[in-house]
Amino acid sequence: MKLTTTTQVTLDGVMQGNGATSDDRRGGFERGGWALGRGDDATREFITRTYQRAEAFLFGRRTYELFARSWGTIDDMRAHPIGVALDRAPKYVASTTLSAPRWHGTTVLGDDLAAAIGELKARPGGELQVHGSGVLTRWLLEHDLVDELTLIVVPVVLGQGTRLFPENGRGLALDLVESRVDSKGVTIQVHRPAGRPRHAAAA
What we know:
- The chain is α/β, with parallel strands linked by helices.
- It has a single domain, classed as Dihydrofolate Reductase, subunit A, CATH 3.40.430.
- It is built from 6 helices and 8 strands.
- It has an 8-stranded mixed beta sheet with strand order 4-3-2-5-1-6-8-7.
- Helix 1 runs parallel beside helix 4 (81-88).
């Protein structure tokens, strides 16, 4: 399976608290909800189609629990095409603390996460998708396990919050394979990792 990630980010790279303002208050974060209502119908359709083509889903613990409480339990959300896609597909969670997942079709991966994800990627099929799950996405990128990275960029500068890419970390070159902008200024960028970036030699 191809491992793909999809992340909503601001222009300054923040991914924290894109949904309801109460979703994520870690670090004193108070500016949640910045992505609500920002994309147009074409962007919402793109996101729905992305979920629908998943062979399986991979989550970090926190995002998994948020999705399980919403897409996994609320009737209107379960009936939505995204909810249907999440319900039917296998769900894997990268966690050392989750012991009894309540959402059916869920498997908690073992301590050797790299080996477990490598085994999943080696299976035939379509996409193993990661949505949100910032800590997990950063770890996957650091370990060169991401095959395709989709950024849904909302035109706002937040000035606060956890960013997708850390201030200090490994460099990553990317090939842009698809890009579009919707009528509300939201940009969808699909990238494929392309090794390490080149740097100019010091004078």
